[in-house]
Amino acid sequence: METTVKKGWVVGITGASGSIYGVRLTEVLLSMGYTVHLVISNAGWRVLKEELQWNTTNRDDVLQDKFGGYPGTFKYYPVSDIGASIASGSYLVEGMIIMPCSMGTLSAIANGSSDNLMTRAADVMLKEGRSLVIVPRETPLHAIHLENMLKLARLGVRIIPAMPAFYFHPKSMEDLISFLVGKVLDNVNISHDLFTRWGDQNAQRGEQN
């Protein structure tokens, strides 16, 4: 009897504001039994400390505390580890999601600059034809930002800006975060129930009337 093994996803967290998005994405993937290959930039660690009050003195311990209790497994790689397994196209993963993605990281990917593990792993996704999803978090956007996004979009990269919706009547910050994570999962064909869809929202209203 064959056993279906879920392959892993690379998740990148950069120094853009909104690190909670990447944390929530990692939690959801792990809860579904996936292996998550986690890369956090140095600026990403700074934002985790500033926005989520993570104690980043011992990074391995804090990651184990946050992500160690799920059915799936996570593997953390320092952003400087350019020789990590995920830096090679021969290492099989489903794809990569950078959430949130800074404009600096987006620019490096768009221009083929692979000088750290984050950008090298993204470059591998492009050359191997695997899924690459980028969640930019910046405002306002100038022409260089937009040109870099257009360049990547033309290569098949999914660009999903951190723009939460309100049609499903979110009740909390968690609802808004889950919505965006759900939109990312939709784009990589992973089923979930993180938010109420438009048609379902109308159906629920009909039932209540």
From TrEMBL:
Q: Where does dimethylallyl phosphate bind?
A: 167, 183
The Enzyme Commission number assigned here is 2.5.1.129
User: What are the entry keywords?
Assistant: Flavoprotein, FMN, Lyase, Prenyltransferase, Transferase
Q: Where in the numbering of this chain does the Flavoprotein domain appear?
A: 9-187
Q: Name one GO molecular function term.
A: 4-hydroxy-3-polyprenylbenzoate decarboxylase activity
Residues the record lists as binding FMN: 15-17, 41, 102-105, 137
| Reactions catalysed according to its record | dimethylallyl phosphate + FMNH2 = prenylated FMNH2 + phosphate
Protein family per UniProt:
Belongs to the UbiX/PAD1 family.
Reported function: Flavin prenyltransferase that catalyzes the synthesis of the prenylated FMN cofactor (prenyl-FMN) for 4-hydroxy-3-polyprenylbenzoic acid decarboxylase UbiD. The prenyltransferase is metal-independent and links a dimethylallyl moiety from dimethylallyl monophosphate (DMAP) to the flavin N5 and C6 atoms of FMN.
PANTHER family assigned to the protein according to its UniProt record, in alphabetical order = FLAVIN PRENYLTRANSFERASE, FLAVIN PRENYLTRANSFERASE PAD1, MITOCHONDRIAL
Q: What is this protein called?
A: Flavin prenyltransferase UbiX
Q: Which organism is it from?
A: Paenibacillus sediminis
Q: State the organism's lineage.
A: Bacteria, Bacillati, Bacillota, Bacilli, Bacillales
